[in-house]
Please model this.
Amino acid sequence: MLTEVLNPKPGVLGGKIGDKINTLETFYYDNKIVRNFAWATIFWGLAGMLIGVIIAFQLANPDVNMGTQYTTFGRVRPLHTNAVIFAFVGNGIFMGVYYSLQRLLKARMYSDVLSKIHFWGWQLIILSAVLTLPLGFTTSKEYAELEWPIDIAITLIWVVFGWNMFGTIAKRRERHMYVGVWFYIATFLTVAVLHIVNSYEIPVTLLKSYSGYAGVQDALVQWWYGHNAVAFFLTTPYLGMMYYFLPKAANRPVYSYRLSIIHFWSLIFIYIWAGPHHLLYTALPDWAQSLGVVFSVMLIAPSWGGMINGLLTLRGAWDRVRDEPVLKFMVVAITAYGMATFEGPMLSLKNVNAIAHFTDWIVAHVHVGALGWNGFLTFGILYWLVPRIFQTNLYSKKLANAHFWLGTLGIIFYAVPMYWAGFTQGLMWKQFGEGGVLQYANFLETVLQIVPMYYLRGIGGILYLSGAFLMLYNIFKTAKAGSLQADEEAEAAPLMPATVGQHHDSHWHRLIERKPFRMAVWATVAILIGGLVEMVPTFLIDSNVPTIASVKPYTSLELQGRDLYIKEGCVNCHTQMIRPFRSETERYGEYSKAGEFVYDRPFLWGSKRTGPDLHRVGQKYPHSWHYNHMMDPTSMSPGSIMPPYPWLFEQDLDISDTEAKIEAMQKMGVPYEPGYAKKANADLMKQAKEISADLAKEGIEVKPEKEIVALIAYLQRLGTDIKVKEEQVR
Model:
């Protein structure tokens, strides 16, 4: 039908109208921006993976923390996740979108200037993460650790990307918008909503802020964001690219247009509800947890619909998979997507989650998706795309095949030990021996058991990284052998009004996919419903977060200590959420209540236990235990894999911002007494001197202004509020 409109048969359209439609316009695709994003993808991919290898070995051997405060696991782990997600995958998305969007819409990008601003702005945002995260400037919210000025920059650059994309859609020469474009639109809109809502924060200083949400509400918003960052940054744009690059590489049409419609709408509607499955058995209201479980289980249908549509696109081309490394990468990528999207719903089942949550099982699950789905699809696209824009052939298929096998082995060596470690952890934590006593009461026993798996995981990372270095060489030699076709000539007929020569198409979806702004509105409605249903009651109905009268705001010293805890990234290894299981209450104490977190901005429930939960650690040990533990963890816990923190004993606590922090908290409703901000530092020093005096009684001389004193104050406060008789305040 479309061919007939663009090239009408004699007699179908007559006179000047027919001549006008047959008039082709010459224009030029912008390959320079694609080239730039391709090089950035490779560079940041190698950087992010290298950091990943380092932190893998840091968990196995604390000496790999390198003895500085800027290279510890707690500081560097968020740098790894941000580098892989937003630098490697982010640049990969923009590379694929800028290449495919122009060709699907038969138009050059709307503005070369916007393309350049987008590229350089995104690289500067990544560079700001590289500079700030190791320095300890972090919100501690997973996948959203960057502080408020960088959040604003992300918003502005994302708007530039959307402006450029929708401008290109508006001037397209192709009436029908292909399925890949639907996914790009949903990605832009949803990531914008997620980022703005989750980044609501109150600035304190230039690089310090407090979350606009507290406790349970902060946790709900964060994992609504966190889960859907995976959905709409690591999944939907890659599905859009799969729908374009896989058929191109296989030289086959997409298996089913109707299946792609079902896949798209059901995926974006259902995905947005699933965030609470990260918070099962926590202080989140039960109804919200249950909603998350129901929609997570439903997710398997659209996810596998997309996987099946991708794999069946290869019908008749499977013989080429044996010889073409591009297709090898893409097949394994789609298979990894299918595995991860089966495992996700399975992990959301409460009986499975009870064992898996907080263990390395989740780490394995995430990396099957990241290394297999995102990594391998990006590699496949790079191997297909770079030779085309440089007008040459791939330098070496043998090297590409070697990369494929190194990467595949890397995934196996990474994932299998982590699954084993996860099962081991989950079962050891819950194991009771004779007499109903915890068999592994010392948490460290469960850690030492899995250290060999951490070494194997590191070896897997080295294999995967080695393959990526082979790709760098192969792509570099390919580019060197050719020359960039910066402005690629193309021809297409101009887009005519729908009433002129337009054949009637009865399929209802044409009414949406030919109207991009209508599609944008409906996609926005689809993704907003789930978030609103989960968040509005949690914020507006008090019974969802019942308060506890004995829970008081943190003192100024405890607040500063909490910020040090956040700065050092302690939440990357320690949770503050005791679930209502006998194994956890026996090990840690009374399970956590929603009302205990009403002054926690941000919440610190964590998502991984490399060390024990700390919610009831307050008053459990004397000050000297924490002092010695931070100076040399092995002195208190022989065999510990936690690194020492000697700088906490050397550096003075910065109290210049104490007043600003208290005032920011008061603005958000934390009930400090009137005028407390002005005397906060005096109160801080009074409490610090008391702790210093207590340490002196145990033979430890430490000045009250040192950072370690504030951290001890915070740790000694944790979980102590409900030792007083609880009184519910409705």
